[in-house]
Amino acid sequence: MMAAEPRTAAGPSGRLASLIDKANGAIRTIAHPSLVQLVVRLALAVPFWRSGVLKWDGFLQLSDTAVTLFTDEFMLHLPGGPYPFPAPQVVAFLSGSAEIVLPILLVLGVASRFAALGLLLMTAVVQLTVPDGWPVHLTWAAMALAVLAWGPGKCSLDGPLGRPAPRGPSR
After folding, report:
1. How many angstroms from the chain centroid is the CA of residue 120?
2. Which of 2, 29, 33, 158 has the lowest tally of Cβ within 10 angstroms?
């Protein structure tokens, strides 16, 4: 008995199906999971890095503006509030430090899930501080959750440093 050969439909519908298959193949090539994971890490890191850089006047020298923001401007919008941030100098220092360290880890792909979790928690605090910014905060949360779910991808240092291989997106 002969093996069945793949059947291709003749006519316009067969050509359309073939064209769709070719387009899907091109899209899979362009949007390779490792590339997508790298771009998600970069896109999540940038806004936090830019915010963190503005909080410093030098090495471990917090800017007066950063402290003023947490003292006078930023408020936590909780039920019955808004409330001021507790220990604004400490919060400004921790925020500024996290906004520098976590994006670096994320871009390099070192402890990426840890960094993404930290940025997800920061996003939650930012949402409580600026409730009207939810459309942007939602995208940050989605990117952080993607890194948490699928890891940093092959374009990261987690693998070469001997960390367990990240779980990639299923195809």
Report:
1. 8
2. 2
